[in-house]
Automatic annotation (TrEMBL):
Chain segments annotated as transmembrane: none
Domain of life where this protein originates: Bacteria
A Pfam family: AAA_lid_2
EC number from the UniProt entry: 3.6.3.-
Domain ATPase AAA-3: 56-189
Domain ChlI/MoxR AAA lid: 261-327
A single GO molecular function term of this UniProt record: ATP hydrolysis activity
Protein name: MoxR-like ATPase
InterPro entries: ATPase_AAA-3 (IPR011703), CbbQ/NirQ/NorQ/GpvN (IPR050764), ChlI/MoxR_AAA_lid (IPR041628), P-loop_NTPase (IPR027417)
Organism name: Allorhizobium borbori
SUPFAM superfamilies in the cross-refs: P-loop containing nucleoside triphosphate hydrolases
Length: 336
């Protein structure tokens, strides 16, 4: 069995006991989330995997599909201190990070005091993130990668754990600014949110239009979430799975000998994609009650991990080919 360098190795008995406890917690979390989010199991799973892996997620879907509700519900159920920012074109970096205000004491001495912005939360909901200007979007970059911010040369650490769950509307491109590649790469997963199925939509109609709605409650707390995140980083990864991750990520880069990629992909995923796949595959294994990830976990996560880290050539876009089509082709090749 291969292990990620630097991880503390747990003995098998301790690992099984910790995994069973984590599994019970995850089952309760899923049950509690389902009180507020009907259907959408794949979306709930992907978003939870991002948080359990210690990363950030980008939820992409048309308005009205309960993206905001999902994030709010997760904040409650996971016992995290949550804040929400509605991104707009006139939003300034200081509206996210905070600002310095001048104080005056009774002797007339003046000094600056930092007033923290909404980024100081364990779960930050960035609603319609592509509506803000690039300058404001970049204010989130440092916090998402380094877990601290710098204002007027002073460093301020963010709370732990710190997760950004951002939503993006793919349809209305007027008044939006595409997220820069560097920021997209900071998201562990991109979660595509589709329409609910018939049974789920019927349940939505019946259960959300009455006088009272079922409200989810906290199942775990921040410290317990961090314990589960540590456990996931300690899970052993078989060498075959590491090879499958490397092979898949490298096959998505032009110039690596894959005909499909060379024809359609302008640029492909960097090493961070492999790191994300490694973590998310471990989280998915635990989510489904297994102690080590399999190659199937890698293939199942290929879309959410890779699609926002690749760009197609103009010719591929003109032919109507999507990034998802290319990734499906790469996974199909890998399964042969």
């Amino acid at each position: 069995m291969g292990m990620m360098a630097g991880a503390d190795v747990l003995d098998e008995k301790t690992m099984i006991a910790a995994a069973e406890k984590a599994l019970a917690d995850i089952a309760t979390i899923r049950q509690e989330v389902s009180k507020a989010i009907f259907g959408q199991e794949a979306v709930v799973e992907s978003t939870l995997l991002a948080v359990l892996s210690g990363g950030h997620a980008l939820l992409v879907g048309v308005p009205g599909l309960a993206k905001t509700r999902l994030v709010t519900t997760l904040g409650t159920v996971l016992g995290l201190d949550a804040n929400r920012i509605q991104f707009t074109p006139d939003l300034m970096p200081s509206d996210i990070l905070g600002t310095e205000v001048m104080d005056q004491d009774e002797n007339g001495r003046r000094s600056f005091r930092f007033v923290k912005g909404p980024v100081f939360a364990q779960l930050l909901m960035a609603d319609e993130i592509n509506r803000a200007s690039p300058r404001t979007q970049s204010a989130l970059l440092q916090s998402m990668q380094e877990y601290h911010i710098t204002v007027a040369g002073q460093r301020y650490d963010l709370p732990a754990p710190f997760h950004v769950l951002a939503t993006q509307n793919p349809l209305e491109q007027e008044g939006t600014y595409p997220l820069p590649e560097a920021q997209l790469d900071r998201f562990l997963l991109q979660v595509d949110v589709g329409y609910p199925d018939l049974a789920a939509e019927r349940r939505i109609l019946l259960e959300t239009t009455g006088i009272s709605e079922t409200q989810p409650s906290a199942v775990i707390h921040a410290a317990r979430l961090q314990e589960i995140q540590r456990l996931i980083r300690q899970m052993p990864v078989p060498d075959g799975v590491v090879d499958a991750i490397l092979s898949l990520v490298r096959s998505a880069r032009p110039g690596e000998g894959n005909d499909l990629t060379d024809r359609h992909v302008a640029w492909g995923p960097g090493p961070r994609a492999g790191q994300s796949l490694m973590l998310a595959a471990r989280a998915r294994a635990l989510y489904h009650g297994r102690l080590a990830p399999s190659i199937d976990d890698v293939h199942a996560l290929a879309g959410p991990v890779l699609q926002h880290r690749m760009a197609l050539t103009f010719a591929a876009r003109a032919e109507g080919i999507s990034v998802r089509d290319v990734i499906s082709g790469l996974v199909k090749d890998a399964r042969k």
